[in-house]
Amino acid sequence: MTTTELRPETPLDEPVEVPPPLDTEVLRRVLDGRFADLREQFRREAPADLFTPTDDLSTRDHRDLTRQRLRQLAELGGHELGYARPWGGDSPGGQVAQFEMLGFGDASLMIKSGVQWGLFGGAVQALGTERHHSTLLEPLLRLELVGCFGMTETGHGSDVSSIGTTATYDPATQEFVVHTPDVSCRKDYIGGAAEDADVAVVFAQLVTGGTSQGVHAFVVPLREDGVDLPGIWRGDDGRKMGLNGLDNGRLGFDRVRIPRTALLNRYADVAEDGSYSSPIASANSRFFTMLGALVKGRVSVSGGALSQTKVGLEIALRYALQRTQFKRPGGDGEVVLLDYLAHQRRLLIPLATTYALSFAQDDLLSEMDELLRVQLAGNEPDATRQRAFESHAAGLKVASTWHATRTLQTCREACGGNGFLADSRLPQLKADTDVFTTFEGDNTVLLQLVAKGQLTAYAQQFSDLDTLGMARFATRDFVSTYAGRSPARSLVADVVEAGRIPEELHDRAWQLRMLADRERHVVESLAKRMRKARSRPEAERFEAVDELQDHLLLAGRAHVERVVAEAFAAAIARCDDPAVVELLSDVFDLHALSVLEAEKGWYLQHRRMTTLRAKAVTTAVNAVCRKLRPRTGELLDGFGTPRAWLASSLVP
Amino acid sequence: MTTTELRPETPLDEPVEVPPPLDTEVLRRVLDGRFADLREQFRREAPADLFTPTDDLSTRDHRDLTRQRLRQLAELGGHELGYARPWGGDSPGGQVAQFEMLGFGDASLMIKSGVQWGLFGGAVQALGTERHHSTLLEPLLRLELVGCFGMTETGHGSDVSSIGTTATYDPATQEFVVHTPDVSCRKDYIGGAAEDADVAVVFAQLVTGGTSQGVHAFVVPLREDGVDLPGIWRGDDGRKMGLNGLDNGRLGFDRVRIPRTALLNRYADVAEDGSYSSPIASANSRFFTMLGALVKGRVSVSGGALSQTKVGLEIALRYALQRTQFKRPGGDGEVVLLDYLAHQRRLLIPLATTYALSFAQDDLLSEMDELLRVQLAGNEPDATRQRAFESHAAGLKVASTWHATRTLQTCREACGGNGFLADSRLPQLKADTDVFTTFEGDNTVLLQLVAKGQLTAYAQQFSDLDTLGMARFATRDFVSTYAGRSPARSLVADVVEAGRIPEELHDRAWQLRMLADRERHVVESLAKRMRKARSRPEAERFEAVDELQDHLLLAGRAHVERVVAEAFAAAIARCDDPAVVELLSDVFDLHALSVLEAEKGWYLQHRRMTTLRAKAVTTAVNAVCRKLRPRTGELLDGFGTPRAWLASSLVP
After folding, report:
1. Min distance B252 CA to chain A CA atoms (Å)
2. Which end of chain A is more exposed for a tag (fewer CB within 10 A), N or C?
């Protein structure tokens, strides 16, 4: 049995049958998901001039334009949705959906609005109490008060709990003294800090009575009547790769005094006499509760990355649908770029994955909406559910942003020299989104957090199991071990499979099982290795655990891939339009098979796939590409992006 | 046997032994290769202000600065090396080596100089004859005549033979009439066309006596006394992702008349009466001979990409050597980024591959130098050798430029938010080099050309074989088939191997065999499939051959990977400093093992690797990363880049 004998289901010499066109409006609504109405409204009502190109602007002009556009947005509304009912909200998912819609335009504006109404306003809402809400929320929603979010420091990026800025309580004056001890503790890369922010939410080590209580957030005024207050130092991060409409900068504090009440005190407070109190006993869980309350940022970045990816893909694919490259051998008819299999693989696979990620994002939005509404009502969401959600949010942020970086790179290359010209818009899409893999948590660090969450869940599973469960688990574990280690077994399967490869490969249940099985195996083996590493003497532990970093990253990735595929499958199951279901099923097929193909090394190595099957997967990916090629236009229509928003010379 | 039992050679609990420091000057000379003296001279003599940053400049200012710097270069000299002896040259390799040195600075200047003295001047030298040389070379070398290279058209990127510009001979006036029939035939993305070029080498379909003779090159004046000549139309490509110091533009010709002698007539001529003559009978081989004479451009882009990659890697690695992220668990001592295995894998593997590609590039430069010196002397190089060289040049251009894009992306991410700031220099490195995968031939198209060359060579091998050879070949083929198809056999090997995995994995001969074997297998199976596809009826042939595009790309990749590794191994074999040999051997190990790891899916699928061995490869990669971690500074010193040239805020 050789590769050539594995023919795609549609033989080459039979023309591909083109199914009747489907109602792309239905497809669009399915993809728009839970907040479809809001998205449709935005498409109708958003001012057209929000979407004109900005690539030729100087830093100064781009910042000015972005400021001006932010005022337009303040009038348009939508951002208030993320706030509590009295401020017109109670739909945090709706707020993020609107943020995602901004992602079809200039990313500088999207991020600028995210800094003001997501990060800054969000921190006031989530970490503050009535005294902050009543004084700050209305002005900040109306843009009468512009703020920034001062968490990251020059020397402390990923390890936020180690930031060096201090806020020391002085009972004599009932004030906190905010201070930057050295240059590595400057706040850095802070959107709005260079120019626009009047006020900052500053994260600092709270010290009272000589004791540090860990990181807390404070509202620190930066200027009054347009003049910076004493002790405030600002720096400008200057020109960046992208997002130059946003004024990123640095902040330093030289013993700046703020009132005791400037502490955002939902989760902890300091009394007039300096005594510290918190409903959460452990400093560690207090810190993670605060960070958890801010998780909307990650969900937003994930969604924004997908919107920008959709724009890039639509530009590259519509270009590929009309651009000719070589003449058709034999001379009859023209061949456009997308007629080439290699080009289909380059662009249709990311298109399918964009669909998959969009459905996962919609699930995340729904879950976030429910959890944050509990929080907005002043209660705490269920801890287990919140933890699971945070892990999903981190994982999807990683998947979406790396997908954006990779896909937009591919789009640029797929458009050749045209993709290098600014007026194609691809350069700006690439440049703006590039930092998404870093902000709201570096992807490599986040993915390890996801994996550590899996390990915890895995350990939990053990401790929760009753006797029966334990037995079931043991059997499953045994099966997994057996399937993983017995070469003879899989070789027998190889022979048995030969006749029925194509059908099972396209079976969604089988595809999902393959992904779930991989995740389980990777986590189980990681847990074993981790237990061993952690049992080593403390001096050797760092190296021993570090040795597992790759395994951790793999576990995180396997988890996210399974979750994304399941979300996609669930979305298809919910859909009741047969034509849409049929099309989405092929899109699912392409996505799932392409993951299996990309990971075939793992599957072969762990004897989850025979060599025959690995070859068949590639054949199947190629066949689905050909099948979807005539549906490309419909799939792009499903994104629902008004043509003017594409703003690319490549799509007139 | 599980993964955990496969320990790296240096157990975790024994400290890695740091060998005595080696003489990095020797290492640098080894890496500098055949043109080491020239590179050293450039490091000493290049004006420091060529290397100041340009990221904050407007398009206008950047173009002005680049023009001014080009004049500095004209005075510095070095570019004349690529020309025939009367013009001070006879060292085309030296010219490219100097171009590569410019790659440590602003890529706009590098490419600008490449347009003038590589593409434009190079075409005059290679395709012209005495009448062009005597009038044009001296002024263009002195920059008294600025030219551009008009090949690509808006609608014809990769398929140069189909360009639409015509040059029709008019015997009445003994002139060619150069004409752009429609907008798709405008020359586009032409460096220098927007503003600076006084003259263009224009590629056009030569028509005489009503017959088209295919693509030829003509010298077409664009302006006189600063004013564009009648019939010349110029457009500006405007802002681009990068390389904004270079004025890319468009050219159109409205029946522009040029003298008969403007035809660059080394390979074909038109007599006064309009009769056409050429020493090369076939239009096709004439066209490819002309393109072959211009292959220096590909070699240059490959080298320039590597230089820019070296700058980016040095910035990211020196940053990783001092940047702390998390505290060391247990608290004793700081952990810098490069102490993490994941970070080592991200950056040390590309560092090793950069070494590998540099040695392959040096081989290419030597070969090019010899072949082009034959050409400069007015002779034609050996056709077989020239063809092999062209294939290597195309393959290495693909490998180096994709390596640059991937590596600089990784460098940006590895520097987090700092890597997004312009003053880190990473944004500009990324933006400038991004188009290298497109120009001088789109990588995807080039890689297919490489593979087609392999197929030709493979067919040639058959036809050259005598009876004995045929028998030998058949045996080899059988062995390959057997090894590829018999699962039982490889499973037996699995058991046998268990005891001696680590040693063989680090055996260079084994590593090279693995790469060569893969290439052979891929090409053999491709040849079989291709023969089948080509035998189909003409109407189906396009789809049948297109189905093999992925296989073609794989064949190209496997070929280049083998060639690069062999070049690296040969360089080590030539080196006589034991300390350098020892270090480079580890670098080779990391490079080769990382290729095997990345391709383990293929090796497993084709039963060239057991699952046990595949796991061991990953363990070995990790072990070599740890071993090279303390040698990082020395390896960067080997690049020999003066610190001031890095011009990055991340490396003070």
Report:
1. 18
2. C
Residue B16 has a pLDDT of 53
Model confidence pLDDT, tens digit, residues B579-596: 999 999 999 999 999 999
Q: How far is the alpha carbon of B36 from chain A, nearest alpha carbon, in Å?
A: 34
Range B479-503 average pLDDT: 40
Q: Can you give the pLDDT at residue B555?
A: 96
Phi-psi label, residue A632: left if phi above 0, alpha if psi -120 to 50, beta otherwise: alpha
Residues from chain B contacting residue A491 (CB–CB below 8 Å): 487, 491
Pinpoint the alpha helices (H) of B255-382.
Answer: 283-293, 296-320, 341-376
Q: What is the distance between the alpha carbons of residues B398 and A325, in angstroms, rounded to a whole number?
A: 19
Give the model confidence (pLDDT) of B338-383 as tens digits: 999 999 999 999 999 999 999 999 999 999 999 999 999 999 999 9
DSSP A263: B
> Which residue on chain B is closest to A57 by alpha carbon?
B58
- Cβ contact (<8 Å) for A416 and B438? yes
Q: What is the pLDDT of residue B563?
A: 96
Residue among A80, A440, A561, A599 flagged as catalytic: A440
Which residues are CB-neighbours of B173 under 8 A, at least 6 positions away? Answer: B257
Q: Please tell me the predicted confidence (pLDDT) of residue B459.
A: 84
Chain A residue closest to B153 (CA)? A417
Q: Which range has the worst mean pLDDT, A113-122, A489-498, B61-70, B552-561?
A: A489-498
**Whether the Cβ atoms of residue B46 and residue B101 lie closer than 8 Å to each other:** yes
Q: Would you say the C-alpha torsion A526, A529, A533, A536 has a positive or negative sign?
A: positive
Interface contact A239, partner B, CB < 8 A: yes
Helix (H) or strand (E) holding B25: helix B24-32
Which residues, 6 or more positions from B296, have their beta carbon under 8 angstroms from its beta carbon? B82, B92, B95, B96, B118, B122, B368, B372
- Is A443 an interface residue toward B (CB < 8 Å)? yes
Write down the pLDDT at residue A563: 96
Residue in chain B lying closest to A405 (CA): B409
CA-closest candidate to residue B166, choices A567, B158, B153, A578: B153
Report ipTM (2 d.p.): 0.91
Q: Does B439 touch chain A (CB under 8 A)?
A: yes
Q: Is the pLDDT of residue B67 over 60?
A: yes
pLDDT tens, residue by residue, B417-431:
999 999 999 999 999
CA distance B245 to B57: 9
Task: For B156-206, write each residue's pLDDT tens digit.
Answer: 777 888 899 999 999 999 999 999 999 999 999 999 999 999 999 999 999
Q: What's the rounded Cα separation, in Å, for the pair B349 and B358? A: 14
Q: How many angstroms away from the CA of B225 is the closest CA of chain A?
A: 30
Q: Tell me how far apart the terminal alpha carbons of chain A are, to the nearest angstrom.
A: 48
Q: Closest partner residue to A420 among B241, B330, B487, by Cβ?
A: B241
**Contacts of residue A225, Cβ cutoff 8 Å, sequence gap at least 6:** none
And the tokens for B542? Answer: 């396009």
B237 in contact with chain A, both atoms CB, cutoff 8 A: yes
Please name the amino acid found at residue A445.
V
Min Cα–Cα distance to chain A from B577, Å: 33
The C-alpha atoms of residue A408 and residue A495 are separated, in whole angstroms, by 41
Interface residue A540 vs chain B (CB under 8 A): yes
Would you call A14 an interface residue with chain B, using a CB distance cutoff of 8 Å? Answer: no
Residue-level pLDDT at B460: 78
Residues of chain A with pLDDT under 50: 1-14, 466-501
Residue A345 to residue B618, Cβ atoms within 8 A: no
Cβ–Cβ gap B542/A330 under 8 Å: yes
DSSP, res A378: T
Determine whether B413 is exposed, middle or buried from the number of CB atoms within 10 Å of its CB (0-12, 13-18, 19+): buried
Task: Say what the pLDDT of residue A329 is.
Answer: 61
Residue B471 has pLDDT above 60, yes or no: no
